Amino acid sequence: MDSSLTWTQPGPWPMATIDVPLDGADERALVDACLAGRREAFDLIVERHRRTVYQLCYRFVANHEDASDLTQDVFVRAYRGLRNFRGQSSLGTWLYRIGVNVCLNRVSARTLPTEPIADRQFIDQDDDTGSDRLLRKERQARVRAAIAQLPRKQRATLILRIYREMSHQEIADALGSSVGAVKANIFHALGNLRKLLGSEGL
Amino acid sequence: MHLTPEEFVDAAEGTRSESSLPHLADCDRCRRELADLRRTMTVAADAEVPEPSPLFWDHLSARIGERIDAESDRSWWQAWIRPRVLVPLSAAAVLVLIVTLAPRSPSARVVVPVGPAPTVAVEPPNDSADLAADPLLTLVSDLSASMDLDSVSAAGFADPDSAEHAVTHMNTDELTALKQLLQAEMTRSGA
Fold it and tell me: What is the fold, at CATH topology level, of the domain defined by A118-202?
């Protein structure tokens, strides 16, 4: 893969051509390289953001297969709409927004299976560190599955607030709602999560 | 009056102090609700996404690349069936068809004789002025000026052997008429 990016530096002196490794290129340069037909630039974008996008998708669906499919959808859609990226937000935020839309569309289309949760009660076993770790993993799986069962707006709001740490206003902008609606969704999402988890899940 | 959802969320997230919500000091129910909200937020924040196998990331990138390549290929031929391309293309095809099927010389027409003696009637070009004034024929003539039979044949609109086929399948009377027509045309042009 050709990993260098070439552009012409403007200036009063004769036009100079500078070779910059594509690996070190910033987001704008990568986007421009993609738009100029450099597919390997998009490969780098994927490489940089795939984990974040996958984690977002996983939080929506709580299973690996669908999260993988959704992640692919997000990047394919991003590639298609790369010309619309204006650079007003970071590329990561732009991709995250696409991810939220893709996930919201998908989860509204059908009910997705969540990862299997061991059918056992959560028992406090502070004296056993090995069990502690196992129990923590099980509890995390149960929480992820419960989040994936929330109504889609509540789910999206909770994910953006807790895991992306977006402000209420940013979430409102991303979801096309108001700050008041965002706060109400967080409140109801947490209430529903509590019900789904039960007292022993907390 | 109990706290609103907004007040609960602000208090749970710490953007609003409890002291600014005097109702909390008097209401056990709202205090419990607030404590539950905070605990649920903590539990939710602790739920990490399990890390997939290291091989998965390369597989994922490869799949994305394949889908983008497939999409690029599809968009190439899909571009051809878009109306803005298809309509002019169809119009051009119709024009080529008209040019191909139209008589080469509108001033002369062969009339195959029915009677015993073959006769050839060459219609006088008395309508040539009308034909020249016909805008549709002028358009066709202009458009077809740069076309050759090979291009038309390559486009699939005419069999390159069709003229030869027509001649070789003529009967004796038709061949005689054609011969006389050619001789008359050669005499007229002085060849």
Answer: Arc Repressor Mutant, subunit A (1.10.10)
